[in-house]
Amino acid sequence: MELNAIHHIAIIVSDYAAARSFYVDMLGFPVLRENYRPEKRDRKLDLKLNDDTELEIFAPENPPKRPSYPEACGLRHLAFHVSDIEQTVAELSALGIACEPVRFDTFTGKKMTFFRDPDGLPLELHE
Questions:
Q1: Do residues 39 and 19 both lie within one domain?
Q2: Do residues 46 and 81 both lie within one domain?
Q3: Per-residue pLDDT tens digits for 5-19
Q4: Which of 27, 85, 115, 125 has the maximal Cβ count within 10 Å?
Q5: Burial annotation 94-119 (CB, 10 A radius, 16+ → b, else e)
Q6: Sheet of strand 111-116: strand arrangement
Q7: Quick check: is 69 in a domain?
Q8: pLDDT digits (tens, 9 = 90+) for 43-72
Q9: Measured between alpha carbons, how far is 72 from 69 in angstroms, rounded to an integer?
Q10: Maximal C-alpha separation, the chain
Q11: pLDDT band for position 75 (50/70/90)?
């Protein structure tokens, strides 16, 4: 078996407009596809992360809340590699997005921090 790369990461959001604004307008993800699926009564937004990976945003009418935070089974957080963490934190701050203090990963020694999407999903920056 050969698994070459992650094709996409899917997340469920509670507010489509807020999530679209956050991921597209604030974080700058280009939109690949944007659809309403009447059979599922949801919206699906496909965003481009890089040439190989997409971020799928699903917005059903009444999504269930996350069972507990942050240690529920399932996606713990989504991490993005950045070249300059201080610059990225400053850019997020200018957009009104708060980050935790930058710290060092215990195992890699690399700089890291967390911020949250509109639903509170932890998003990590890792240098």
A1: yes
A2: no
A3: 788 999 999 999 999
A4: 125
A5: eeebebeeeeeeeeeeebbbbbebbb
A6: 78-81, 122-126, 111-116, 103-104
A7: no
A8: 999 999 999 999 999 999 888 877 666 666
A9: 6
A10: 47
A11: confident
Strands 8-12 and 54-60, sheet pairing: parallel
From CA 109, how far away is CA 121, in angstroms rounded? 24
In this structure, are 80 and 119 located in the same domain?
Answer: yes
**CA contacts within 13 A on the Cβ side of 81:** 3
- Residue that finishes a domain, picked among 63, 84, 111: 63
Assess if residue 34 is contained within a domain: yes
DSSP string, 3-23: -----EEEEE-S-HHHHHIII
Residue-range definition of the domain harbouring residue 22? 1-63
H/E stretch holding 104 reads: strand 103-104
Same domain, 40 and 88: no
Alpha-carbon 15 to chain mean position = 14
- Judge contact between 123 and 113, C-beta under 8 A: no
Q: Which two tokens stand for residue 49?
A: 């992360």
Report the C-alpha gap between 37 and 43 in whole angstroms: 6
Q: What is the CATH number of the domain that holds 11?
A: 3.10.180.10
